[in-house]
Design goal:
alpha/beta; TIM Barrel; Type Iii Antifreeze Protein Isoform Hplc 12; two-stranded antiparallel ribbon; 31% helix
Length: 349
Amino acid sequence: MSIQIGKFMVGKGWKPWVIAEMSGNHNQSLERALAIVDAAADAGAHALKIQTYTADTMTLDLKRDEFSIRDSGSLWAGKSLYELYQEAHTPWDWHKPIFERAMQHGMVAFSTPFDESAVDFLETLDVPCYKIASFENTDLPLIRKCASTGKPLIISTGMASVSELDETVRVARDAGCKDLILLKCTSTYPATPQNTHLRTIPHMRDLFGCEIGLSDHTMGVGAAVAAVALGASVIEKHFTIRRSDGGVDSTFSLEPEELHALVIESERAWQAMGGIHYGPTKAETKSLAFRRSLYVVKNVRAGEAFTRENVRAIRPGLGLPTRYLEQTLNHKATRDIERGTPLSFELLG
């Protein structure tokens, strides 16, 4: 099920593909946006993602309750949706320089479109794939539009039921999507580990027969590394230069040192999975010599009985296996044996 996105192969047989999500952490500064791209590349991210919308394509400029964020626990409490999206959006004329900077670093650059006009615009920039956000994973016309390009489609699954995901996947495939990646996601900001439910990852892979990853809003890198151990082939994390700089998503975004740790540790987790294996690996072969085995630990004369005082299980492992200890005590020495001699059957009379 490997999928090619740009120069990268994505799938179980390849190291985890790490996406740095800039979102609105550019704080309406193109200079800062480009610095975030540079920092993501230096940290080892394989891809850089932004979001393509305007406040007007997202919502209406109204402040009625349903158009405002009233949850006091939200990072964005008190803002109208229009105000939030106006603050967070990435100007469309920034896309090209951001993508070009990412590609100069060897990263894949792409975006999340939020309406069909955004897809048309991104097509002019020849993006290599599309991402559907969790809040749009039931927007079937948008999914059809992205799928019809024939490019790989990455869909976050936050809030979606199995039946909703089934419809989303069917629509995407019927519209021409051949390369599909679903990202397990919890749509709270930040998300808690307890609400992350990573065991869904292998179940989702079996259920929908596609690559699975994690769009992770938890703090730190632990959940993402664990996801790789459960089969995630893609990890997406929000990214900023410093959380203290502020920004709409800065609170739950990784800093460069953390992103670098994620790239390293997720690859280690992937390497460590291996296959089902028992017995010594090739690298362990030399270590077999340091197992315990039976040794003569006191000088023994010919005809003298072996006892627990003159035979012990010690390291190294050049003598008889320790399972033969009781059997050894029923024998006498066939010759004089010097202390420190590994016991062998030929010494048992």
